[in-house]
Amino acid sequence: MKFTEIISFAGYAIEAVGVLVIVLGMGIFSVIFIRTYRHSPEGVAYQIYRQQLGRSIILGLEFLIAGDIIRTVIVADTLENIAILTLIIVIRSFLSVMLHLEAEGRWPWQEESHRIDRRE
To answer: 54, 77, 85, 104: which could join 72 in a potential S-S bond, CB 3.0 to 4.6 Å?
Structure first.
């Protein structure tokens, strides 16, 4: 097995971990939500569910980005592939920042005390 094949496999494995994190997070937190929905004050279980689901998606996206970087830079280092990787990273990073804002109620670079109140 050549070095590039090993690195390519590692990239796919890391991406698979990212997908697994998202799927397991969705499954686990959905079960917890269903169990706690009736016994919690109105809206609390749903808010916690959204936060936990957002966190699992953010973590999964980080693994997906890492896998893309490894495979593209090491294995397929053409200018076209690097441009595609850049676009993918920009999109996934934007999604991560927006999901962080949605889940935590603050921008990733803000301190905990700067929460954005989303009550209507």
So the answer is: 85
Number of domains in the chain: 1
C-alpha pair distances (Å), 120 with each of 98, 101, 116, 117:
19, 17, 12, 9
Burial degree of 76 (CB within 10 A; 0-12, 13-18, 19+): middle
Q: Which residue has the tokens 């803000």?
A: 110
Residue 5 tokens, joined: 């094949």
Pick from 104, 28, 97, 19: nearest CA to 63? 19
Residues 6+ apart with CB under 8 A from 100: 54, 58, 107, 108
Domain range for 12 is 3-104
The DSSP secondary-structure symbol of 117 reads P
Q: Could you tell me if residue 119 is inside a domain?
A: no
Cβ contacts of 82 within 8 Å, gap of 6 or more: 72, 73
For residue range 31-71, list pLDDT tens digits in order.
999 988 888 887 788 888 988 998 899 899 899 989 988 88
